[in-house]
Amino acid sequence: MNYSHVIDSNVLFNNATMGIIIADESGCILMANPFLLNEFGYSESEINGQKIEKLIPQRFHSQHQQLREVYSANPRNRTMEEKQDILAVRKDGSEVPVEVSLGSYKTDGRQFFIAFVSFIPGRKNAENTLKQLNTELEKIVTARTESLMETVRQLGEQIKEAKAKDAELQRVNNFLNESLEKEKELNQLKSRFVSMASHEFRTPLSAILSSAYLVSQYNDQAELQKREKHVQRIVSSATLLTGILNDFLSVGKIEEGKITEKKVDFNLEDHIMTIISEMDGLKKNKQKIAYHHTGNVIVQSDPILLKHIVLNLVSNAIKFSPADGEIVLQTSVSEKTLVLSVSDNGMGIPESDMQHLFERFYRGSNVSNIQGTGLGLHIVRKYAEVMNGSISCRSELNKGTEFSITIHL
Question: Is the full-model pTM beyond 0.70?
Answer without folding.
Answer: no
